[in-house]
Structure formats: C-alpha cells, structure tokens
Specification:
The structure is a homodimer. Chain A is built from nine helices and eight strands. With about 190 residues, chain A is an alpha+beta fold. Chain A has a four-stranded antiparallel beta sheet. The first copy, chain A, has a four-stranded antiparallel beta sheet with strand order 2-7-4-5. The longest helix of chain A has 27 residues. The mean pLDDT of chain A is about 95. At the A-B interface, α5 of A face α5 of B. Chain A binds a DNA duplex (30 and 30 nucleotides) through α9. Chains A, B: It comes from Emticicia aquatilis. Chains A, B: This is Cyclic nucleotide-binding protein. Chains A, B: InterPro entries: cNMP-bd_dom (IPR000595), cNMP-bd_dom_sf (IPR018490), RmlC-like_jellyroll (IPR014710).
Chain lengths: ~190, ~190
DNA sequence: AATAAAATTTAACATAAGATAAATAATCAG
DNA sequence: CTGATTATTTATCTTATGTTAAATTTTATT
C-alpha cells in the first residue's frame, strides 16, 4: 500500500482513518503478460493502481485494434467513459508485462465518498488532473504531426520503446505501423 | 439563476442553503459579439455558465488560431487546463454572439467545497462528465476522417452552422478552411 | 538449436488533406 | 446604398500518411 499512499499524497493527503477505509476496499491482483485485466463489454467497476507493469486501454474501430493510452508504474488506470456513465465499456485494459496491481472497487469507493469527504476530494483531484492530461492530448493529436507526436512520446516516456511493442505505439499515435516505421527510419 | 439551478439538477441537486451560497458568488456578465471573455496569458479564475450566446475557446499554434471547443446555452465553460493547475492559460474564451453569462469565482467556489460537500460533489460530477466528453473527442479526432467529424458535429449541434463561422469550425475539426470547404462542396 | 509465429521494415502506389493564390460571396461601417 | 473588409469557395500543386504486399528481423515454442 505504500506506493498507493505516496501517490495519494501527491494529490490530497488523507487522514489515517481514511487510509484504513480505502485499504479495506483494496485487493491485490497479479496479471500475466498480455492478459486482459478488464474485457470489452463489461461496465468498469474497478479502478486500478499499477505497482508493477505496463497497461494499455484498447478498443476496436472496425476490426482494427486501437490503443487509447498507456499507463506505467505508480499510476491509476480506469475506463472512465464507463466508470462515470455506468455504461458498458467498448474498451479493454490489457497488461503488457507481468504486473502487480491494486484493485479498488468503484462502488465501495463511491460509498466512502459519503463518509470521507477527503476521499471524494482526493479522487476529484486525481481525475481533474487526468482530465487536464486528456485536454492536452487532444491538442497534441490535432495539431502536431505524427513525427512530432512520436518524439513527444519518447520524451515523456523514454522507456516506452523498451516496454511496449511498436504496433501499439502506432495506433496510440493515430498512425499505421507502416507510417511509424517510416518515421523511425528517417533518423 | 433558474437555468443554472436546472443545470445543476441534472448532475447533483443542491439543498437550498447550498444554492444560496452559490448565488452569492455569482455575477452576471454581458459580452458583445466577438469580444474575449477571458484573454490569453491570464490564469483561469472564473467558471462561466452560458445563459445566452455561443462561446469558443481558442489559442494559437505558431500564429495560426485554433478553436479548441464551442459551448452553447445552458453549458459551463472554463479553461480547465489552467483552472486545475493554477498555471496561466495559453487559451482565450471568446463570445461569438452577444451573450449573457453567469460568472462563478473559482476561488470562492473552492472555498464553498469546504463547507458544502454537496457542492464539491456537484462540480466533481460536472467535470467528470466533461472529462468523458474529452475522452470521446480524442477518439473522434484520432480515428474518424475530417468528413466524418464534420457530419458528427452537424448531428450533435445542428445549429452550429448558423451560429459559428466556418473558419472556426475548420480548426475545431482539425483541418484548414480550404479542406472544410472541399468537404462541404461534395454534397 | 530449429522451426514457426509474430513484429517490424521496406517498397510501390493511392489518396486525403495542406499550402498558396485567386475568385466570389457575404458582412460591415460610414 | 456603396465601398471596404472579411469569409468562403475554387483551382492547382505538394506532401504526409494510408494501403497492400513482400522481405526481414525478432521472439516464442518444441
């Protein structure tokens, strides 16, 4: 739990009581490389914290698989478009490496919001921050060339190339594998 | 205030006390067509509710003006990447028509969060919903053609063409005016 | 280690969208 | 109402990325 608590502290430090309450709704999950943590069609009812490993969210656009995002150690991952709407998700979460996660039940978490305003505040801040990241991602996709986006990704996550197959990176960047290979070939 | 209260009710109905507390931190603002409501370089300290009119958020990418989003009546608009980080915004909010707005001071609002958890919950839900919209927008930009995005916009906001100049729509769609004109010409 | 499977690169050609410039249409200010 | 400004369209040419297919390299399995 230490990693998770440090993560929380970056947003909104919690009282001991609140930490204990969260600890009670957490479960450890281990997942083998390439396995889905959550599958397409199910409603998102769990928020995961990554202790070890790499995750991606992916979905299909007309039988082509698209990677929406990656998440590495000490980050939270959830399919928010399902978590916040209660609708089934068209997306899946897959672990790209053998991974260790902490699973937080969203129903129980939302219950805790009623007894611990500080927990509601914590997650408000976590998701506000994720929201800002997504707003910035729109800008990145819309107005930077594929090459610029590739370089920006390398700068942001220098180890992504070591840990994530290029085919996933290509669709994350919004281009084909062939295009990515071309961009990489230039230098 | 009635429109604003109805808007709130869609997310999290408030007690009378909470409504009164919010009412106290609201101001009416009228803005003429084409005027900036908030300008580039200032930190976002106000959340606006649009009673009448159309707003857009825009910014510059290498001296080319880009429209990030539009907002119509009965919606909230704010430059969240500044609101949630406290950093100065590279973006401006402009009113495309003569408009009436309600301005909510973000500092005072965040203070109210401490006395009214229900207000914090309300805005948590409002921004969670906006976050989901942004996640969906990433998908739309990344994996639909410009023509698909144009048609989707028309379906979503059928009156956008009557109320918003095409040059703004073009950059919102991530294409040039010339490209948009070409797409429109096809049919 | 050998083979099979998967991932990545390379090549050739096609296409959507960009850039620039000019023409036309719509809007605005006096 | 008229000229001036701004917005939109049309035309031409260029370019980045897509598509398909084949070649090569890497990884996984027996």
């Amino acid at each position: 739990m230490n990693e998770l608590i440090s993560y929380f502290n970056k947003y909104n430090p919690l009282s001991e009581n609140a930490i204990n309450a969260i600890a009670e709704i957490c479960k450890s999950v281990n997942i083998k490389k390439n396995q889905d943590l959550q599958s397409i069609g199910h409603t998102c009812r769990t928020i995961y914290f990554i202790k070890k490993g790499v995750a991606r969210i992916y979905y299909y656009k007309e039988d082509i698989e698209i990677t929406e995002c990656f998440a590495f150690e000490n980050a939270i991952i959830a399919r928010v478009e399902s978590l916040f709407t209660g609708k089934p998700s068209r997306k899946a979460i897959q672990m790209i490496e053998d991974s260790e996660l902490i699973a937080i039940s969203s129903a129980k978490l939302f219950d805790l919001y009623n007894t611990f305003p500080e927990i509601e505040r914590l997650f408000r801040k976590i998701f506000e921050s994720a929201y800002v990241d997504t707003v910035n991602r729109v800008e990145s996709i819309q107005f930077h060339s594929a090459e610029e986006r590739y370089n920006a990704l390398l700068k942001e996550s220098p180890n992504v190339l070591q840990r994530v197959p290029l085919k996933y990176i290509a669709s994350y960047l919004g281009i084909t594998q062939v295009s990515l290979s071309r961009i990489r070939g230039i230098r």
